[in-house]
Amino acid sequence: EFCSRCFCLSHRIPEDHSCSAEFQQRSTDNSANTSNTLNSRTQILDEVTKKLQNPSPKSKSVANKVLLMKIRSKASGLDSIPTTDRVYFYVETPRKLDINTCFLSSSWTVGRAVDWLSEKFSITNRN
Predict the structure, then answer these.
(1) pLDDT averaged over every residue in the chain
(2) Which residues pair with 105 in a beta bridge?
(3) CA 20 to 30 Å from 46, out of 27, 73, 91, 92?
């Protein structure tokens, strides 16, 4: 690419061993390529930030599916509930700041679900 001569370590760079005419021509070409590369990188970054700010419907659906998979993997509940009847929830308790995931049966009434959740999270139920 350059002069193809063998030099010691201290003179291995073309500007250190008097490859001036050939090196200067290539360095100006490289600087133009570098500026074009930087411009293309900023354009790519701009496009990525736009896509992150305005996600497409497809990416939203994929994100929702991933979120559901995470909920299902961490959820706790009664093992007697069949997997086809499970409804998954994020539950934030008043005492704890963390969010818990659990599942309930789709056939349960609201009263039974409230009773089970209050018992599971040790919350007094006054109804």
Answers:
(1) 75
(2) 86
(3) 27
pLDDT for 19 equals 65
Q: Report the C-alpha gap between 35 and 27 in whole angstroms.
A: 12
What does the alpha-carbon distance between residue 84 and residue 74 come to, in Å, rounded to a whole number? 17
Phi, psi (rounded to 5 degrees) for 88:
-100, 145
- Output the CA torsion 56→60→65→67 (10° steps): 140
Q: Tell me: the pLDDT tens digits for 50-91?
A: 766 776 777 778 888 888 888 888 888 999 999 999 999 888
Burial, 95: exposed, middle or buried (Cβ in 10 Å; 0-12, 13-18, 19+)?
Answer: exposed
Residue 120 contacts residue 100 (beta carbons within 8 Å):
no
C-alpha–C-alpha distance, residues 125 and 12, integer Å: 79
Closest among 73, 61, 125 to 101, alpha carbons compared? 73
